[in-house]
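Bench notes, afternoon.
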Amino acid sequence: VTHGDRTFIADRGGTLHAVGLHAGGALWQLDLGEIGGVSAALRTWNGRIVCVTVEGSFVQISRDGRMLSRSTLPVNGPIKVSPSVPTDDGVLVVVGDGGGFCAMRLDPCAPVWQGRMPAKIIAAPVAVPGRRVLVGDTSGNLWRCSLAAGEVSARQRFGHPLSVPPLPYGEEGAIVAAG
């Protein structure tokens, strides 16, 4: 992920790297190996780097490589799917391999809610307008849930697994790749 004049890269061994865009070269490295490899895409929010480890740690790191917070996610691992992009007010959604999912507040770092999906999730959840989140599953369901409490407000059934995150379209729509 790129933020300002830096790109942040995580390797499967558990090391987070910061690379300068203008001068090139490494700026710093942070070994997260003791808490597990980074599961998927890094996210940024309010100048912080946010990452989730395969084993279920939720970590926030400053642009200069200091660990700001670390907590354990309230979902069963392993965590293999990227978290949602954080909302402007600092909430993101994380899904576990076993169907558990939760919303995490970034400041202060704490769970907002946790729930369970009826089928396995293999694509990142997507926060959309109206304080909602879209989650697609391997059974071909697209779920719309409240970002505030995780309650399901709608379900659309497709004929194939949803393996790509939905793309929000307007206020109420989404473009879905099914199949």
